[in-house]
Every structure is written in C-alpha cells, then in structure tokens.
Model the fold of this input.
Amino acid sequence: MAASRLEAPVAAPPTCDPHAAPVRSSPAPRTTVACYDFWDRVFRRAGVLDYTEGFYDGDPTVPYQQAQRAQLDYLLDAVDCHAGSRVLDIGCGNGELLARARSRGALGTGVTISPEQVQHCVGQGLDVYLLNYRDIPDSWNGRFDAVVLNGPIEHFVQATDALSGRADAIYHELFGICHRVLDPQSSSRQVVNTTIHFDRFQSDPGEAVRSPWSFPWFSDKFHYALLVEGFGGYYPQLGQFERCARPYFQLTAERDATYDYHLTSEEWLRHGMRSLVSPRQWGRLLPFAVRHPLHTTTMMFLLLVSQSWNWQFRGEHPPMKHLWQTWSYLPALAASP
Ligand SMILES: C[S@@+](CC[C@H](N)C(=O)[O-])C[C@H]1O[C@@H](n2cnc3c(N)ncnc32)[C@H](O)[C@@H]1O
Done:
C-alpha cells in the first residue's frame, strides 16, 4: 500500500491489505507542509490538538473543549459511525476524531501530510499514515463505511490550479477517491466534510498569487493573499462541490458553521496572544524559525498582527462561509467499469 508512517513506506494498516506492495506518496505543496510544521509546534505542543472549529450551536458560552468534542460527535453521527464502523479520516490532524471513533468501537484509519501528526497519532495507538490523499492506493478500495474530511480540502486546490481551470477536476477526483474506498455493500456509505468557501469575498486567482503587499494594507485582497502565502491552497466556491461530486455523491445535509469557526478562531487568537509572553513557546518555535524565517514571519503576522485568519469569519456578512456537508453514495457507478 501507499502509506508511510514517516519518511519511509511501512506495513499496511491492519484494516487494509497487509500484503500489498508499498508505493511512494507524492509530496504535498511545501507551503502546506510548512504551515502544519508551524501549527504543530505552536499549537499542538501547547495542548491545542483540534485544528478545526468546535460546535457551539449558536451558544458562545459553550466551553472550548466541549465544543470541540461536540463537533467530532456531529461528524461521526453524520456518517453513522458506530461499533465496527470502518472510518477513513482524510487530513486527520492529531487524530482527535479517530480517537473519538475508537471510543465508539469503530475502526479508524487516518492520512495526513504532517510527519509530526503521524508521530503523535501513532503514539496514541492510532492507525495513521503519512500519505497524500491523491495516493490512496487501490488496495484500500471498498474497505470503508465512511469518509471524513474535517478541514483538509482547503489545501487541495492551489490558486495556480484555479487560474488554469483545474479546480473542478481536482475536486471531482477527490470525490472519486472517496467513492472507490467506500464499500458498495455497506449500509452507511457516507462522506462528511467541513470546508471554508468564498462568500462575500470573491477571489481572483490571479490576484491571490500576488504579494499581499501589492494590495492596500488590511484590505480584503491583502488578507486573502496573506492566507494563501501562509497556508497554501485556494477555497472552493459555494455550490462547486455539488457540481464536482456528480455522479459519485449526492448532498444530503448542509450546516452553516461560520459562527462556530468565528468563536473558535477568536479563542485561538487569545491563545496565540498569551503565547507571546511564554518563553517555552518561543523555544518550541525557534528551530522552525531558523529553518523558515520568512514563513515564520508570515504566520506570526497573519495570525497575530493583521489577524487575517480571524478576518474570514468576522462581521455581519463575513468574507467566507464555512459549511459542514454530508454526502450519500450514489451506487450507479459501482457497476460501471
Ligand atoms: C485544518 S487541518 C485539520 C486536521 C484535523 N482534521 C482536525 O480537525 O483537527 C488539515 C489537515 O489536512 C492535512 N492535509 C493537507 N493536505 C493534505 C493532503 N494532500 N493529503 C492528506 N492530508 C492533507 C493536514 O496535514 C492536516 O492534518
């Protein structure tokens, strides 16, 4: 199979074919890998394990950790995860959802492009691989009852892809991968994703690849170009996934989680501000800063000074909309060659 725990390919996950040949995983965009290197140092090592929003259900007084657990439960319920369910978590981060699935008696497998996250997950006894989702091998076909994508899709299309008209094809391929790994005989066969979409702010991909400093400072275009520079990736348009999911999946449920991401991001910002006075945090960051001085400066600036991450979800009509979407498997294709 295609996965590797760290740099080298290793044995297959127990849920998959243990005898399949190892295949190399193609590299993910460097910016995305570097951004999680940064995130893992600054947030994970400081105890912030979830890299997506909590579920507040409109109540800002819900404690942060409770909201995070509620989000995991929402997603697992959406794909009908129960004892014995086989769940694939694409972009599994630090394995919080996989651990929650395990507590239900489910069998989880995760993939991520961050070696630090793999190391952390494997240390928790989770079945996680260093693997670009595009390289999920054929030996995993039909092995799962459900697929979860909690926050990775924003990294899958680059602004240069959008510029050259390849975005739809990349999303279509993603839905095709989700379709082939699902067991056609399973009674669940659901996919759930949480993804930030353009809404009030509409980006021109040609502008998104320009230097943020070529735009008026703290303008919408400045914020978005800074996010692209820091995190990599390019967001989808509203409705784009419905178009690209055909003929593999049909959208069955959708929830607007923009306010949930707003509350979570403000909590992250408070955490980041507190970290500024922590010598321990600076110690964690130093090796990364020495290797990636420019990226460190960009991330610190966009998180704490321009607050471009938070800009996305602020205001009465925020620039971005965050959606939780559940998809049902369309079996028609299972019969086709
Ligand atoms: C915003 S984080 C979300 C992590 C986790 N799902 C959570 O909720 O905390 C995005 C995740 O997607 C992973 N990722 C990004 N690009 C990927 C790719 N091409 N293949 C697999 N995973 C990827 C990152 O390593 C990271 O774990």
Observations:
- Residues 28, 32, 36, 50-52, 90-93, 96, 111-114, 117, 132-133, 150-152, 155 surround S-adenosylmethionine (CB under 6 Å).
- The beta strands are 86-90, 107-112, 127-130, 146-150, 190-198, 249-256, 320-329.
- Confidence is low (pLDDT under 50) at residues 5-22.
